[in-house]
Design goal:
Blueprint: H1 2-43, H2 52-73, H3 79-93, H4 97-119, H5 125-128, H6 130-147, H7 150-162, H8 166-173
Helix pairs in contact: 1-7, 1-8, 2-3, 2-4, 2-6, 3-4, 4-6
Length: about 180
């Protein structure tokens, strides 16, 4: 009877270790894939720091400089200036990819509106050349974002996570899909 209990316990312990090992291994493997795909957002595909996050910083800088020019010609409380300032604050406080995408859309719209107003104004000879350059730089960052491989990597990870058995194991171990920058 004692041997039977010891064998039952050993079999139960073995099954428990196999299940735990499978869950831990699956979690670690999925998290490694997720981390690699998520890292492309900030580190870029080559790990050189050239990714969507760096393009967002460039766009933010161009937006800031557009506001500096606008403040010379428009009152500080002007809605167009305030919209860009508010959109920049939203971008600065955004922590998730989804929030950054939403903030970037607001920044895009507000910078475009401010640019069109500045472009139609009689600016000084020195200032007249800046709005077009700043807007071109701003849009270039947006174009690069459109070709960035982050969304492809995030989509590939999400497809893996949606498949079997990764989907089941991911749900059991708390691995979440990645947000796309859209």
């Amino acid at each position: 009877m004692s041997i039977l209990r010891k064998n039952s316990f050993a079999a139960f312990a073995m099954i428990l270790m196999i299940v735990a090992g499978t869950l831990i291994g699956s979690h670690n493997s999925l998290m490694n894939q997720r981390t690699k795909a998520a890292g492309i957002f900030t580190l870029g595909i080559r790990g050189d720091g050239i990714g969507i996050q760096s393009d967002l910083r460039e766009r933010d800088g161009a937006a800031y400089n557009m506001v500096v020019i606008a403040r010379k010609y428009l009152p500080e409380e002007n809605a167009l200036i305030q919209n860009v300032v508010d959109a920049r604050k939203s971008m600065d406080s955004a922590s998730s990819v989804k929030d950054k995408a939403t903030a970037d859309k607001a920044l895009e719209s507000s910078v475009r509106d401010l640019y069109h107003v500045l472009n139609g104004m009689d600016l000084s000879e020195q200032d007249a050349r800046y709005p077009q350059r700043l807007y071109t730089d701003f849009r270039s960052g947006g174009d690069r974002i459109g070709y960035d491989p982050y969304n492809q990597a995030a989509s590939a990870f999400n497809r893996t996570l949606a498949g079997f058995p990764a989907g089941l194991l991911g749900k059991m171990t708390g691995v979440r899909p990645l947000d796309l920058f859209e």
